[in-house]
Amino acid sequence: MTLTVGAISAAEHGAFVQAQRSVSFLQTPAWAKVKTEWRSEALGWFDGQRLVGAGLVLHRPVPHLRWRTLAYLPEGPVIDWTGDLGMWLDPLVAHLKAGGAFAIRVGPPVRTDVWSAAQVKKGFADPDVRRLTELPGQPDLVGVRVSSLLRDSGWLPQNPDDGFGAGHPQFKYEIPLTGRSEEDVLKGMNQQWRRNIKKAAKEGVEVTVGGDLKEFHDLYLHTAARDHFTPRPLSYFRTMAAAMRAEDPDRFRLYFAHHDADLVAATILVRVGTHACYAYGASSTAKREVRGSNACQWAMIRDALAAGCEVYDLRGITPTLNADDPHVGLIQFKAGTGGQAVRYVGEWDLPLRPVVYRAFQMYMRRRSAS
């Protein structure tokens, strides 16, 4: 089979995504409307006249060389990663190089390792284990093969030790849902999580779906100030909600947890096909004892189950198991849901114009240091 790559319309791209079992929301046409600071391009892989793959490309320009771009496919492209990678990637490289890209960055949605919640728990209890990667995970041979082929083809891994880089996290926490009931999922959680869900119900926490994004954003700003991260503006969430709901009314859902008249937690769930993703969350500092965040998570998990989803994605974690690491609380919280820690292939760059690529790397290092 010989494949060709060419531009496709947003409608063609959307129809292809809709026909897939599972696609990252970062590879939907809507995401191009959210990332307005980058030029976007929807590409299709064709076997003759038949569309067999698709990818959303975000073009990031180089300062002072705006006709040269980093062509970025976050958590994509949507192709057959189990097949002949050269057959899929070679025409992509040729197309993007002809369009002025100085480098290509891909994020294959392919796993390399999986660790169960029980393994993670044992890692926490062992003082000699400081990172997930020191535990014997279950390897995914497809991911191992993809990593090897990318490296042999000149692609460069962009995966920092902590799992968080300039792009999207390599390590995630996920709850498998296929063939499971609410009771199964609840039994898989640790005692603290089950107790917190029961506590929220006993305290009368009420979770509702839908509402005012401004109310969510106000609580999100409060959370950002408390937890010391840089928040996104309200306009970002309004754009995200409008773009995703235009593709599918159920793609973007807002959850609010109230105790009496007080908003105690709020979350955003994004679903594409059978993949449900916890995208953003916020919580009040007051009334933390009523466990509004756990109530929101449980409501989203139950809705994902009802929608027939195969996975509930809690997104990024760092691979640390070191009790002294400030990031360890993230994986401890998520591991309480049961589920599994997952390492993906991560993001990889292919320099097409090495001089420009090196200049871009220097620019990004100076920017991160400032």
UniProtKB/TrEMBL annotation:
Keywords: Acyltransferase, Cell shape, Cell wall biogenesis/degradation, Peptidoglycan synthesis, Transferase. GO terms for molecular function: aminoacyltransferase activity. Pfam families: FemAB (PF02388). One of its GO terms (biological process) is regulation of cell shape. Signal peptide: none annotated. PROSITE patterns: FEMABX. InterPro entries: Acyl_CoA_acyltransferase, FEMABX, PG_Glycine_Bridge_Synth. It comes from the Bacteria. Coiled coil: none annotated. Belongs to the FemABX family. This is Methicillin resistance protein. It comes from Catenulispora acidiphila (strain DSM 44928 / JCM 14897 / NBRC 102108 / NRRL B-24433 / ID139908).
